[in-house]
Each structure stands twice: as structure tokens, then as C-alpha cells.
Amino acid sequence: MSKTKSTVSKALAKNIRRNFVERLIEWALMLSGLIAILITFGIVFILVTESIPFFEVVSIKEFLTSTIWTPNFEIKNYGILPLVAGTVTITGIALLVAIPLGTITAVYLSEFASHKLRETVKPILELLVGVPTVVFGYFALLLVTPLLQKIYPDLPTFNMLGPGIVMGIMIVPYIASVAEDAMRAVPMAMREGSYAMGATRFQTAKTVVMPAALSGIIAAYILAISRGIGETMIVAIAAGQQPNFTFNPVESAATITAYIVSVALGDLEHGGIGYQSIFAAGIVLFIMTLSLNILGQWTRKKFTERY
Question: How many CB atoms neighbour CB 203 within 10 A?
């Protein structure tokens, strides 16, 4: 009888410890989530509070509609549109490079490559993520731009085309890796059903696998867009940092992130109106990224419901 009680007591104690550990893990996970949320709210709070003195001097209308950005000149103008134009143009060029290459790579690795080739190529491809962006910046300035100048002799040394192409190469692994993982998650039964109907590998990939994995593919695109918008060193080195309101890729330009870096390095007096402008620019960058993520979530939901 005592032996039975001892066994029950040990089992009960074990269950109590296990429940305690599970509850502890649950609370730790919840705390991690809350910390991430608090950090996000902290960033927004800093951006808003630090930019208030800027908007007390510069009207929101001028900030959002003016096409002149000259915080370092004697006559100062704070129109954010030149920085937005440079950011959008360079990111757009990068996506024109990255989305086709990344998607094709993902389809090949998921549907056509052998297991050995996939396990060899994918880690090598993902090594690009670990390359410092300053290296990509000098790669754009010293190699890509001179090559482009052989095709287009009038191309200036600092332009948006070269860094845009290099940025696209840089974010290919983001699209390829995430999209390939989404495609690999599609059940094999769906592929086998397509093959049984007489479809080829390419037809199966195009009409079965990609639609089924579309939410993950879109998530890869959104990640790439956010990565492109937030890139700093490539554009700071190779785009010229000239805030021109233009969407012409052969001209020099500045982006929001490049401007923030230049001010943070001491181009403008700390605490002045010019310094406060980096927080106003940061709000614009935050809104752009947030809008893209909301759009991505909405698009993923729509396509998930459809397929």
C-alpha cells in the first residue's frame, strides 16, 4: 500500500513540475511578445515626440508637398518628396531584379532541383545575406556602374540604377528562401494529383504549387520590399546623396535612410531643426513600411481565401 502511495506521489510531483515548467515557458513566450510590442510602441513614441519641435517650425503641408529638400543650405527647405522619390525609385529597380530572379530560383529549388543540389545551393545562396551592405555599396560603385557606363556612356558615377540593381541582387536570397520554404510546404498529394492528370512539372509548379503557396510567396515579396526600403549603405555610397525630385534612374538621388545616416554622422547640429528632421523622415519611413505590411497581410488573406 505504501509503495502504491509512493508511486502516486512521485507521478503527482512529476506532473506538478511539468505543469510548472510549461506555465513558465508560456509566460516567457508571452513576455517576449509583449516586449516586442512595447519596443514598437517605444519607437513610435520617440519618433512622434522628437518630431513635434520640427513640425512646430515646418508645416506638415510643406513637408509633404514641397519638392525641395535643402536642410544644409542657407535657405532651408524641408520637402520630403525628393527623398521619397529616391527611395521608391531605387526600391522599384531592386524589385524588378529580385522578384523574377528570386521567384525563378525558388521554383527551381523546390520543384526541379535534386535534394543534393538543393541542399548545396540554398546555403550558398543564403550566404549573400551575411555579406556586409557596405561591400555591396562599393560593388555597385566600382564595378556595376562602370559596366553600365559602357552601355550608357552618359551615366553619371552616382546614379540610382547601379545601386538599385545591386540591391536587387542582395535581396534575392530573401525572396528565394522564404518562397521556396512556402512551396516545399505544399502537400505532395497535390503534386501527385496533378501528375496523375497528365500535367508536367512546370505545369504543376505554375498551376498547383505556386497558387497553393501564394500567401508565403507574397510574404517573401513584402519582406524584400521592406528590406529594400530600409537599406542604407548601398544608396549612401553609390547613389550620390543628392536629394533630387526625380524618378529617372540614371540620375543621382538620396533616400530617407541615407539622409538619416548623414545627419546622424554629424552633418547637422544636434538638437537643431535640421537634426529634428530625421525623426520626421523616420515617421514617413515607418508609415511606408507599415502600409506595405498591412497591404501584404490583406493580400495574403485575400489569396488564402481564394485558394
Answer: 13
Residue 87's alpha-carbon distances to 143, 187, 191, 257, in angstroms, are 22, 39, 40, 8
Task: Please check whether the domain covering 81-306 is classified as CATH 1.10.3720.10.
Answer: yes
User: How many Cβ atoms sit within 10 Å of the Cβ of residue 201?
Assistant: 14
What pairs with residue 78 in β-bridges?
69
> What are the structural domain ranges in the chain?
2-56, 81-306
Residue 76 contacts by C-beta under 8 Å, 6 or more apart in sequence? 70, 273, 274
Dihedral pair phi/psi, residue 249, rounded to 5°: -70, -15
Integer CA distances (angstroms), 97 to 23, 31, 93, 168, 232, in order: 47, 40, 7, 5, 18
Q: What DSSP string describes 115-149?
A: HHHHHHHHHHHHGGGGS-HHHHHHHIIIIIHHHHH
Between 74 and 225, the higher pLDDT residue: 225
Using the predicted structure, report yes or no on whether residue 1 has a pLDDT greater than 60.
no
The predicted model gives 233-253 an average pLDDT of 87
